[in-house]
């Protein structure tokens, strides 16, 4: 790229000055302080994914951008933390112009795939194949203002509060911890989540060692701009629902929520989410990002939608051809099903039935 130099580093080779500059550039761009686009998330992924790299863009010897990614066979790259990262892209100083394919060439990549590219990523948006809604909850005016909006829209808030009271009456005292360090609760959350993946016929993310290790590292972290928050709802001192997700100073990502199915009639997951929103607002969180993917409860809780994108930048050559042969048929099939609600519903039921058949018999 004319006038620019790209230095490729492992995430652990980034200096404290790089972290500072990364955040300054992010602030200058006016983008949300999303924890997935903080340098700490990239360096944490680097501890569990050996192919993690960062392309550091320099002009006149000074960094003007950071491009985190993972690389695989034939130089086929993906967004950092692909599969679990809810926001992706490069961190670029305002006014910096670059060509996406030339950037990939400088990083030794034949392709770069993304599934949650944030809006405003000009160099990569021309390569987006799909635009997705990512619902969010705005808490900038505090929880009470949000709750008033929720009450005006539906009876959902009152129903959730009634479920919580019923849980307390029939099971035992309800207690909520917003920022827990209870390792047993985290293990319970992972077990519930794995069981849910199996029931719905989907791939168990916690069966992948790197994801389990990533969650563990974030759970033990203490960096204000990117650390994990474990929220737990207890009834009679037993965890009945929990959520784990990364946060910055102002944004919390709804990442891994789950509950104990034995208490399903009390809707503990929804009770947990309400409690978490209230506590997050009191803790300075101005937005909770519910993440892309359709879910009825997200529609009930959200205040608006952000936009994210799926797609890939692909360079000519053997690596690019291999990527297209491997990934594009699957993406086309996925999009075909997703854009047809009846077919998507049938596919979901089929996956759930396959998951039920795979469940161990007692």
UniProtKB/TrEMBL annotation:
Gene3D superfamilies tied to this protein: 3.40.630.30
Residue span(s) of domain BioF2-like acetyltransferase: 159-299
Secretion signal, residue range per the UniProt entry: none
Name of the protein in its database record: GNAT family N-acetyltransferase
InterPro entries per UniProt: Acyl_CoA_acyltransferase (IPR016181), BioF2-like_GNAT_dom (IPR038740)
SUPFAM superfamilies reported in the protein's UniProt record: Acyl-CoA N-acyltransferases (Nat)
Record-linked Pfam families: Acetyltransf_6 (PF13480)
Superkingdom, taxonomy of origin: Bacteria
Species this chain originates from: Streptomyces bullii
């Amino acid at each position: 790229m004319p006038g620019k130099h790209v230095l490729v580093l492992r995430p652990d080779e980034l200096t404290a000055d790089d972290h500072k500059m990364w955040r300054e550039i992010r602030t200058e761009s006016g983008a949300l302080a999303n924890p997935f686009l903080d340098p700490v998330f990239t360096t944490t992924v680097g501890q569990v994914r050996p192919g993690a790299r960062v392309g550091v863009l320099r002009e006149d010897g000074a960094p003007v951008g950071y491009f985190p990614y993972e690389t695989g066979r034939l130089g086929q790259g993906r967004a950092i933390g692909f599969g679990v990262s809810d926001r992706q892209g490069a961190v670029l100083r305002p006014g910096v112009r670059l060509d996406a394919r030339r950037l990939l060439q400088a990083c030794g990549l034949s392709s770069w795939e993304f599934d949650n590219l944030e809006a405003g990523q000009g160099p990569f948006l021309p390569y987006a194949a799909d635009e997705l809604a990512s619902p969010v909850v705005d808490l900038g005016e505090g929880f009470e203002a949000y709750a008033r909006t929720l009450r005006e829209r539906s009876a959902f808030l009152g129903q959730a509060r009634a479920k919580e009271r019923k849980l307390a009456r029939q099971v035992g005292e309800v207690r909520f911890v917003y920022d827990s360090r209870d390792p047993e609760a985290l293990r319970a959350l992972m077990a519930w989540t794995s069981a849910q993946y199996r029931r719905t016929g989907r791939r168990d993310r916690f069966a992948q060692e790197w994801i389990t290790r990533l969650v563990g590292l974030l759970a033990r972290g203490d960096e204000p701009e990117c650390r994990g928050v474990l929220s737990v709802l207890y009834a009679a001192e037993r965890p009945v629902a929990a959520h784990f997700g990364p946060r910055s100073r102002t944004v919390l990502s709804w990442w891994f929520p789950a509950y104990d199915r034995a208490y399903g009639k009390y809707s503990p997951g929804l009770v947990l989410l309400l409690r978490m929103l209230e506590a997050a607002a009191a803790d300075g969180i101005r937005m909770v990002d519910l993440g892309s993917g359709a879910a009825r409860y997200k529609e009930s809780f959200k205040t608006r939608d952000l936009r994210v994108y799926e797609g890939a930048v692909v360079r000519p050559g053997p690596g690019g051809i291999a990527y297209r042969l491997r990934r594009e048929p699957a993406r086309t099939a996925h999009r075909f099903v997703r854009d047809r609600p009846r077919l998507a519903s049938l596919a979901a039921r089929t996956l759930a039935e396959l998951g039920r058949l795979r469940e161990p018999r007692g």
